[in-house]
From TrEMBL:
Organism lineage string: Bacteria, Pseudomonadati, Pseudomonadota, Gammaproteobacteria, Alteromonadales
Protein name: Arginine deiminase
Compartments in which it is found: Cytoplasm
Family the UniProt entry places it in: Belongs to the arginine deiminase family.
Pfam families per UniProt: ADI
UniProt catalytic activity: L-arginine + H2O = L-citrulline + NH4(+)
GO biological process, one term: L-arginine deiminase pathway
Species this chain originates from: Alkalimarinus sediminis
Superkingdom per UniProt: Bacteria
Length: 412
């Protein structure tokens, strides 16, 4: 059985989950993109071409790629899995009892591949056979829907597979998401990890998020979680990841001996700094790219370590760059600024995901070609940058790291 383990941010990347933008992005419109957490509508064909280039680049560098829709379709082939997913996605609490039965009956007619596509891409009223609509809906909610309403909302943010689940050493956190527009994503990853043949008998742990319950404010998204290696984890306190979520994950990691220290760094609540990996990403054993307007040596941060009887000890630390060196196990770190030090280029290129690169082995990263100043500075620091197009994908506010969920990566 293939290994399910992520030991670092920079060790050789072996296997990864991606989600090619398809129906979900086609559902974005100027009137709903804010609600669906996008800043703009994307050109679907161009975004797909750019994603294919990203996919192919990974394969060319010996990374095995799995696509989310394929994994979900294969998961739904298990009748128990299919029942569990539809129980979650067609619940009475979501639709009311009558409409829940209507929607479930409609969804059960799809084959597994089409069902996977509809679960991730959504079902609109206009998708439903007009003849069927003559006899339905019978429910109160159904009568309230308009022609442009969704029965099953699209999940365009599935594009960013890093966030919904993240692998930390020998286990996974299936993350309780902060925004309502993304919470249904977690159902699909839970189903895949519990029922898909590649995972259901796998040798791994669930660190957080497995239980079917309301996690209230204890939210985490994978873009804020960076596995530094040697038992160290760096997590951003952000717009999407809360202190109580970080403490819960740290407590679980410590209880199972998976980590010996978690450092939480305060990023504020800026949309531009939505996740840690949009402002700070590890490039090499001693190198990080960073956005100085958000992350600097004065950034407030805290060290969490194991205490007695499952408790967590919290200490505020000083000098964030010194802490990064401590986490990385080096004397000092090389900090590579966004935009090469130009403040205008920095703001522009950070917005276009210059920091959000995917390290595929030490000192080798994949990033958007449009971020010229940052790429030039990285190369001067000895980092090899494999540039990919991202004019459309970048408008979704996510780069190569956001769009990838490693499931097998070497230690350092």
């Amino acid at each position: 059985m293939s290994r399910l383990y992520v030991g670092s941010e920079i060790g050789k990347l072996n296997r990864v989950i991606l989600h090619r933008p398809q129906l979900g992005l086609a559902r974005l419109t100027p009137s709903n993109c804010d609600e669906l957490l996008f800043d703009d509508v994307l050109r679907i064909g161009k975004a797909g071409e750019e994603h294919d280039k990203f996919h192919n680049t990974l394969v060319e560098h010996d990374v095995e790629v799995f696509l989310l829709n394929d994994l979900l379709a294969e998961t739904l082939a298990d009748p128990e899995a299919k029942k569990w997913v539809l129980d979650q996605q067609c619940s009475e609490l979501r639709f009311g009892a009558t409409m829940a039965r209507e929607v479930r009956s409609y969804m059960e007619e799809f084959d597994n591949r089409e069902l996977s596509k509809r679960l991730t891409g959504g079902v609109a009223i206009v998708d439903i056979d007009p003849e069927l609509l003559k006899t339905t809906p019978k429910s109160l909610k159904g009568h309230m829907l308009q022609e442009n309403s969704f029965v099953i909302e699209p999940l365009p943010n599935h594009l960013f597979t890093r966030d919904t689940s993240c692998w930390v050493y020998g286990g996974v956190s299936v993350n309780p998401m902060a925004k309502p527009a993304r919470r249904r994503e977690t159902v699909h990853l839970k189903a895949i990890y519990q029922f898909h043949p590649m995972f259901k008998n796998g040798d791994f742990e669930y660190w957080y998020g497995k239980e079917d319950k309301n996690y209230e404010g204890a939210t985490i998204e994978g873009g804020d979680v960076e596995v530094i290696g040697r038992g160290k984890v760096l997590i951003g306190i952000s717009e999407r990841t809360t202190p109580q979520g970080i403490e819960a994950l740290a407590r679980s990691l410590f209880a199972n001996g998976a980590a010996n220290e978690v450092v939480a760094v305060d990023l504020g609540q800026s949309r531009a700094a939505m996740h840690l990996d949009t402002v700070l990403t590890m490039l090499d054993h001693d190198a990080f790219t960073y956005y100085p307007a958000v992350v600097n040596d004065d950034s407030r941060h805290f060290s969490l370590t194991p205490g007695d009887d499952g408790d967590v000890i919290v200490h505020e630390r000083q000098s964030f760059f010194k802490t990064l060196a401590h986490l990385a196990g080096v004397e000092r770190v090389r900090m590579v600024p966004t935009g090469g030090g130009d403040i205008f280029a920095a703001e522009r290129e950070q917005w276009n995901d210059a920091n959000n690169v995917l390290t595929i082995r030490p000192g080798v990263v994949i990033g958007y070609e449009r971020n010229h100043y940052t790429i030039d500075r990285m190369q001067k620091e000895g980092i090899k940058v494999i540039a990919i197009p991202g004019d459309e994908l970048g408008r979704g506010r996510g780069g190569a790291r956001c769009m990838s969920c490693p499931i097998d990566r070497d230690d350092i």
